[in-house]
Amino acid sequence: MKKLFNKRRSLFLTQNSKYLRYVFNDHFVLVLMFLSGFLLYQYSQLLKDFPKTHWPIIVIVSIIILMLLAMGGIASYLEPADKQFLLIKEEAIKEIINSAKKRTYIFWLVIQTLFLVLISPILIKLGLSVFMITLLIFGLGIIKWLVITYKVKVFYNNQNLNWDAAINHEQERKQSILKFFSLFTNVKGISTSVKRRSFLDGILKLISKTPSRLWTNLFVRAFLRSSDYLGLTIRLVTLNILSVIFVNETYLALALAFVFNYLLLFQLLALGHHFDYQYMNQLYPVRLNAKASQLKGFLRVLSYAVTVIDSILIRELKPVILLIVLMLIVTEYYIPYKIKKMID
């Protein structure tokens, strides 16, 4: 059993490692380097001119610590078919889950401890001694173990393995990882859910039901009814707006807004393949290039709508002009290039 699950873990990690090279491409690494340098500089400035009012710092640090305590999914690597084929090996599966619990705890304990060490200068400025910080690290380590233990309890029902709960948890964990990678490249294995949102039907009525607007109708319908596209858009636009509102450094806020906009447009390129499973769309009496041109048009409208929102929130002329220029380059040159390469 251990050999089987070690093989599954190895295959999943190998798959993820292939996607990492798309995440840490040259452009993203360059942006990450500049962003890291800026954050380190701001951190040093914060320590030099530490605010006299401590409560905002305490609130922010507390929220981050609580988020770290809540993070950490149990990587059991169970698959739906295991409920039938491995049912007689339930005791062995329990041992696998227990080992996964320990791995998860060790990994997140290291992350949690590194964060506390990183912010230890802030904690000292807040009045904590080195001894108190050490106690805090150990105390939070114990709490983390209790949180992980509580999460594992969902896998059991009166000491028996709850196969459905354990398998669903693993599927959700894998999907969350794959959806992160899908922000940067096309990823296989992502499951999607479709739901009609009748309150958004008014948007569909604005688009004429004519052959010349066929693909626009399909793309907008998929965008509004697929949880992946709409949910991702809401999350990225929300992060975009929050970064513009709450990041005091204008150009850093602009950089974050641009990154979120780029990720949004890149992810929505997947709409071009959304209907590939339906071979009947090849019989539609429309121009061959209609699919590509109407996908460009849809993404163009979305891109400019978000850019207008950013421009209103930023309010400074030079950063707004820079953002508009960057979005024009992405929208009018990069996105059409990717669409042509993808659809052709």
Describe this structure as you would to a colleague.
There is one protein chain. The chain is 73% helix and 1% strand. It is mainly alpha-helical. The chain is built from 14 helices and two strands. Strands 1-2 form a two-stranded antiparallel ribbon. The radius of gyration is 24 Å and the shape is flat. Helix 5 runs antiparallel to helix 7 and helix 11 runs antiparallel to helix 12. It has two domains: 180 residues, no CATH class; 146 residues, no CATH class. Keywords: Membrane, Transmembrane, Transmembrane helix. Pfam families: EcsB. InterPro entries: EcsB_ABC. This is ABC transporter permease.
Percent helix, as a range, is: over 70%
Shape: flat
User: How many independent structural domains?
Assistant: 2
Quickly give the structural class.
Answer: mainly alpha
Order of helices and strands: HHHHHHHEEHHHHHHH
- Summed up, the helix count is 14
Q: How many strand segments?
A: 2
Which parts are unreliable, with pLDDT below 50 for 5 consecutive residues or more? none
Average pLDDT, rounded to a whole number, is 84
Radius of gyration: 24 Å
Give a short account of the largest sheet: 2 strands, antiparallel
Strand content: under 5%
First CA to last CA: what distance? 45 Å
Strand order of the largest sheet: 1-2
Describe this protein with a few key phrases.
344 residues; mainly alpha; two-stranded antiparallel sheet; 14 helices; 2 strands; 73% helix; flat; EcsB_ABC
